Amino acid sequence: MTYKVNDFPGRTISLNGTKYLYFGGTSYLGLQNNSAFQQVYIKNLQKYGTNYAASRNANVQLSIFETVERYLAQLVTSESCTTLSSGFLASQLVVKSLNDDEHQLFYAPGTHIASHHVKAINYSSFDDLNHAIRKHLKVSDQIPVVLFDTLDVMGENYPSFQALKNLPLEQIILVGDDSHGIGLIGKHGQGSYELIKQLNAKEVIVCCSLGKGFGIQAGAIFCSRERSRTLQLNPMFGGASPASPAALASLIESEDIIHKQRIKLHRHIEIFHEQLLHKTLLKWIKNYPVFSFCNEDFASYLEAKKIIITNFNYPTKNDALVSRIVLSAAHSYKDITHLTKCINRF
Questions:
Q1: φ, ψ for residue 28 (rounded to 5)?
Q2: Are 259 and 79 in contact (CB under 8 A)?
Q3: Distance (Å, rounded) from C-alpha 261 to C-alpha 337?
Q4: CB-based contact 30:10 (threshold 8 Å)
Q5: Chain centroid offset of residue 232 CA
């Protein structure tokens, strides 16, 4: 069922005058409606304006873009970072730059649509992917490019990336989508880049949205300096308006707020696990706030308890049903306790 709401869906939503707890979406740190974060954002809106409708290659350039890119590169330990207006555009820029005669794209199971091009097909298993790449290397000089999501419910990627370790990585360019990891994973929210880099692939590129972990409308690409220079020469980079400078500035200036929200979220995860009795009902990744399941009756049961979760067909109505309970730093201890009590009674 689709629900129409008039306000941002934070820890609660109102439906026909009735309040429901909301355990869905991707506002993991609850920054979007966090008053302290909003005050920083408002200040930067007054400084930078509501939108920067100009090319990054224009003859007048704001210094905040490079400042934030240096900050983010240092955070994730990459040589370089390039920001764009969305995670989707970031992924598409990388795909477009590598979809040529020198490279061959391979899609791991479950790779997000943001990384796809027109002819993209996800392999059904990592074994099939491994076989296809090795077969390709025997007959072609094209460099294999493996695109994948860093976090998956089955746990084949983060944190060990065991499935990737079985590939001939020294001959492969890895392109990871860390949209659901950046801002959340690691002590400082540095995401998965450093872990993937340790796999010693031929090259590592990580794309992401900054909207989920950092609460701003922007995307980023983490890679080598040489790759960044190549990407920034692409017409897609110069031809598109950049991310909002006010949003990017707020990311840097809210470092303490973001850190506190991350600590709060991880405490919520601990509480949820401590109180949850029926653990086999859900699938999850260790220290991560998303809990998936395949039981339509369970979603209906939670709604009857005035709890709304993520429960819709994604990315189109013809695709599989996505059912997830998502914890947020915006929730309270009482919210988490009520949720676990309802699950335990199911």
A1: -60, -40
A2: no
A3: 19
A4: yes
A5: 22
Structure tokens belonging to residue 282: 């859900």
207 φ/ψ angles, rounded to the nearest 5 degrees: -110, 155
| Longest CA pairwise span in the chain (Å) | 64
How many angstroms separate the CA atoms of 4 and 13, rounded? 10
Tokens 């949003």 found at:
247
Alpha-helical (H) ranges within 77-172 are 87-98, 126-139, 162-165
**Residue listed under structure tokens 């909002």:** 244
| φ, ψ at 310 (rounded to 5°) | -75, 120
Q: What is the DSSP letter of 161?
A: -
Structure tokens at 99: 């979809």
- Tell me how crowded residue 76 is: count the other CB atoms within 10 A of its CB: 23
Q: What is the pLDDT of residue 149?
A: 94
Burial class (CB in 10 A: 0-12, 13-18, 19+), 106: buried
Residue 146 corresponds to which amino acid?
V
Q: Residue 73 class from Cβ within 10 Å (0-12 exposed, 13-18 middle, 19+ buried)?
A: buried
> In sequence order, what are the residues at sequence separation of 6 or more whose Cβ sits closer than 8 angstroms to the Cβ of residue 270?
none
Are 305 and 335 a contacting pair, CB within 8 Å?
A: no
Give 7-23 pLDDT, tens digit per residue: 888 999 998 889 999 99
Tell how strand 283-284 and strand 307-313 pair up: unpaired
What phi, psi does 92 have (nearest 5°)?
Answer: -65, -35
Instruction: Enumerate the β-bridge partners of residue 143.
Output: 103
Give the E-state strand segments of 41-142 in sequence order. 80-84, 103-107
- Under 8 Å between Cβ of 151 and 163: no
Secondary element (H or E) of residue 220: strand 219-223
277, 303, 309 from 342: Cα distances, Å: 11, 11, 13
- Taking only the tens place, the pLDDT of each residue in 171-220 is 999 999 999 999 999 999 999 999 999 999 999 999 999 999 999 999 99
Contact assessment for residue 298 and residue 311, using Cβ atoms and an 8 Å cutoff: no
Q: What is the DSSP letter of 279?
A: G
Q: Which residues contact 19 (CB under 8 A, 6 or more apart)?
A: 12, 13, 306
